[in-house]
């Protein structure tokens, strides 16, 4: 789809005398181009709930997104340094009213810098056959809560084609809870849980923690009793501490690993008190330099990675120094060092969590282009019989891989597939057909995130504010939505959805389609800018 959209944008900008030099990049090269600023325009999207805007913007400062490079040419009140200073002020502010004002300032700074061409709001579809009922959409992009489905007729084995980070599902990866790609969000979310979960309208809900009490320098969690891991191990404070100790080992709390969000940066330690509660200490301070509650802490504990809870039996050691000698980080990371500490990454032994489904098996599919990187033809999960929220009605959950979106549609129509969920799995025309059919049930989330193009102010000629504005006003987003997305989507004029926390603010000017304004802004005409695209439908960095 990106290629078609790119062609449409090329045609629109040609009217203004702007030509595009298009470059197709695989994901690793695309990420490198974003980090180094080797682009003029690049496709991206916000991360959606629960990351927008706080953790998404925090990631800019770690250079985990194109925005770091895109802001390089900004000067004055909206410069990169001033914007990052504004983000930091909002992060440490404890008073909610003042924090809301500070985030409004950040929104305005980023908006007026014109380094984003907002395209459309992204919603996540699901289509189910008639034998499945009760499905309700999740609250994150890759949150597919199939454990709520009731099988109304036939076998309790359900086959699903899920949307993945690459669009069509390819592999669940290592299925470990403490790292990133090639792990998939959706499958990790079925297997593993955290202390808190993300609910409707941004509500923070109890999960493996039943309740909590915050103080200026930390938080104490009362953990849920009676919870079992898939292997029968008990969930308790010792298990929680073991996970924290490994994931937040000092060398991993850097921008190269987990410091794309704030909690790893301010984290100090966890301990278990005499009541078996988990006590987390941090060093967050307010503008006056005093210890202060961190407002986004509970929300960051809802993230699907890198801190979901793994069974103690799946660590290669549970010794007190295991965080250093046999850390659960992937073996491929090798030895990781900070100023004074070196840890050895050895991975995990088995993907065992407390979630509603447990991993059983996978069937690999050969990859002639790269024999060392096979895909998953099929992955099998069984329900967790002792799941603390009640065992799922689905007994066996099968994830099946399809090579193309038309193959997915055919399998759903002929009954070889029970459910499709996620973005980029069905072609827009097929999705619309299923949505209008009485033979299938469809569910669509509200807008979760915005698709966009990042414009680099750090390179000529897009270092020119007038040119960036001309590009923004010169693209007819509504026409692209109609022609390439089958009319599924809505044009947007801001970086974040208004529904995201701290984001319901008025922003001017409106970044809408206005060819007359674009023509005036690009006079005399600039001739060429370059774009980069990628095979991935989601352009977030690997460390999210």
Task: Lay out the secondary structure.
Layout: H1 2-14, E1 19-25, H2 27-36, E2 41-45, H3 54-61, H4 66-70, H5 80-92, H6 96-113, E3 116-122, E4 125-129, E5 132-133, E6 150-151, E7 157-164, E8 167-168, H7 185-191, E9 196-198, E10 204-206, E11 209-215, E12 218-223, H8 237-247, H9 263-266, E13 267-272, E14 278-282, H10 297-300, H11 322-325, E15 335-337, E16 342-344, E17 357-365, E18 375-383, E19 396-400, H12 405-413, E20 419-421, H13 428-435, E21 440-444, E22 449-455, H14 465-473, H15 477-484, E23 490-491, H16 515-521, E24 528-534
Parallel strand pairs: 1-24, 2-24, 7-19, 7-20
Antiparallel strand pairs: 2-22, 3-22, 3-23, 4-20, 4-21, 5-6, 7-8, 9-10, 11-12, 12-14, 13-14, 15-16, 17-18, 18-19
Helix pairs in contact: 3-5, 5-6, 14-16
Question: Any overview of this molecule?
Answer:
The protein is 25% helix and 22% strand. The chain has 544 residues and is of the alpha+beta class. The protein folds into three domains: 2-122 and 450-534, no CATH class; 126-177 and 355-444, D-Maltodextrin-Binding Protein, domain 2 (3-Layer(aba) Sandwich); 196-344, Periplasmic binding protein-like II (D-Maltodextrin-Binding Protein, domain 2, 3-Layer(aba) Sandwich), CATH 3.40.190. Strands 4, 7, 8, 17, 18, 19, 20 and 21 form an eight-stranded mixed β-sheet that branches. The protein has a six-stranded mixed β-sheet with strand order 1-24-2-22-3-23, with helices on both faces. Helix 5 packs antiparallel against helix 6 (96-113). It is globular and about 70 Å long. The relative contact order is 0.23. Residues 535-541 have low confidence and may be disordered.
């Amino acid at each position: 789809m990106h290629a078609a959209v790119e062609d449409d944008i090329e045609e629109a900008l040609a009217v203004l005398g702007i030509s595009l030099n298009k470059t197709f990049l695989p994901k690793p090269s695309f990420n490198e181009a974003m980090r180094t600023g080797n682009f003029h325009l690049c496709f991206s999207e916000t991360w959606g709930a629960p990351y927008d805007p706080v953790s998404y913007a925090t990631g800019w400062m770690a250079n985990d997104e194109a925005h770091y490079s895109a802001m390089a040419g900004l000067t004055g009140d909206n410069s990169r340094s001033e914007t990052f200073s504004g983000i930091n002020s909002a992060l440490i502010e404890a008073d909610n009213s003042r924090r809301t004002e500070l985030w409004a300032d950040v929104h305005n700074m980023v908006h007026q810098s014109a380094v984003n061409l907002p395209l459309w709001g992204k919603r996540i579809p699901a289509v189910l056959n008639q034998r499945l009922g009760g499905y309700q959409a999740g609250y994150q992009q890759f949150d597919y809560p199939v454990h709520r489905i009731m099988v109304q007729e036939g076998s309790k084995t359900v086959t699903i084609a899920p949307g993945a980070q690459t669009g069509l599902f390819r592999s669940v990866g290592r299925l470990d809870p403490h790292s990133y790609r090639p792990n998939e969000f959706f499958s990790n979310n079925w297997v593993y849980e955290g202390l808190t979960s993300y609910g409707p309208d941004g509500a923070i809900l109890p999960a493996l923690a039943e309740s909590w009490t915050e103080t200026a320098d930390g938080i104490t969690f009362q953990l849920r009793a009676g919870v079992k891991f898939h292997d029968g191990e008990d969930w308790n404070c010792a298990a929680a501490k073991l996970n924290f100790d490994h994931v937040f080992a000092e060398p991993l709390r850097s921008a190269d690993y987990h410091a794309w969000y704030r909690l790893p940066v301010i984290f100090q330690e966890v301990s278990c008190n005499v009541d078996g509660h988990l006590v987390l200490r941090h060093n967050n301070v307010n503008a006056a330099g005093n210890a202060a509650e961190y407002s986004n802490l509970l929300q960051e504990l809802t993230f699907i990675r890198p801190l979901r809870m793994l069974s103690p039996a799946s660590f290669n050691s549970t010794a007190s120094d295991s965080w250093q000698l046999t850390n659960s980080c992937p073996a491929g990371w090798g030895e990781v060092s900070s100023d004074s500490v070196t840890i050895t990454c050895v991975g995990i032994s088995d993907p065992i969590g407390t979630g509603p489904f447990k991993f059983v098996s996978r069937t690999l599919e050969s990859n002639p282009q790269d024999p060392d990187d096979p895909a998953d033809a099929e992955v099998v999960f069984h329900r967790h019989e002792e799941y603390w929220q009640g065992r799922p009605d689905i007994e066996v959950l099968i994830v099946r891989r399809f090579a193309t979106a038309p193959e997915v549609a055919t399998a759903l129509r002929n009954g070889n597939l029970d459910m499709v969920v996620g973005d980029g799995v069905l072609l827009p025309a097929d999705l619309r057909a299923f949505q209008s059919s009485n033979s299938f049930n469809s569910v669509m989330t509200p807008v979760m995130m915005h698709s966009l193009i990042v414009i680099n102010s750090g390179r000529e000629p897009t270092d020119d504010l007038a040119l960036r504005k001309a590009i923004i006003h010169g693209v007819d987003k509504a026409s692209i939505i109609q022609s390439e997305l089958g009319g599924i989507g809505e044009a947007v004029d801001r970086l974040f959805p208004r529904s995201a926390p701290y984001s319901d603010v008025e922003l001017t000017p409106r970044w809408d389609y206005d060819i007359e304004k674009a023509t005036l802004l690009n006079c005399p005409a600039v001739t060429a800018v370059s774009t980069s695209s990628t095979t991935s439908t989601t352009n977030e960095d690997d460390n999210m």
